[in-house]
Amino acid sequence: VKLVESGGGLVQPGGSLRLSCETSGFTFSNTGLSWYRQGTGKEREWVATVGGGTNYKSYPDSVMGRYTVSRDDARNTVYLQMSDLRPEDTAVYYCNAMIGSGYWGQGTQVTVSS
Fold this sequence. Notes:
By secondary structure, the protein is mainly β. 0% of the residues lie in helices and 49% in strands. A hairpin with a 6-residue loop joins strand 4 and strand 5. The radius of gyration is 13 Å and the shape is globular. It starts with a strand and ends with a strand.
């Protein structure tokens, strides 16, 4: 199982970014996937989930209305569209495949700063 995040970077407050997580090694279409983030000195925080084979999507209040998770089963890729970014969104963002004990990518850094 392999997950590779990309798309992070430096963005000004109010800006947008789209993260990608390319996956391999498991049956993507049947698998739920989540995004998490971890800021410096903070615990890892869940930010989005998309179901496998369903239309299920879920977000915490902290990102509801600003983040959108989507998936492309043909490309085995999950995305996180982030808008109206705030300095408190600064973190390393990870994708997680909800199989077995869970699999993680290496993360991609998002920095929101003027």
